[in-house]
Amino acid sequence: MAYVIAEPCIGTKDSSCVEVCPVDCIHPTPEEQDYGDVEHLHINPDECIDCDACVEACPVDACFAEDQLPAQWRQYAIANASYFDAAVEPETAP
Hints:
Strand content: 5-15%
Number of strands: 4
Radius of gyration: 13 Å
Distance between the termini: 36 Å
Strand order of the largest sheet: 1-4
Order of helices and strands: EHEEHEH
Largest sheet: 2 strands, antiparallel
Mean pLDDT: 91
Number of helices: 3
C-alpha cells in the first residue's frame, strides 16, 4: 500500500511533505522543471515506504494511505501512479 496525494494539494503544492520524505518519492519538487506544470504533487507508489511522514507534514491534509483515500478522490491513486509512468522514458531500440 502506498500513500496518495489528493485534491486538497491542488493550488497549494506545499512542499512540506517533500522535505520530510525519507525516500524522496514525492515529485515534482520545487526545483524540478515540471513543478509549475502540474496541479499537485505526486507520490511514487513503487518507492513509498508507508512511513506516514507526509500525512503529518501536510498543512492541507492532502496525503492519505491508499486504503483510507476518500471515495470522491479515488482517481488520485491513478493520477499519482500515472505521473510516474509518464515520467519514465521508453527504451530506444539499438
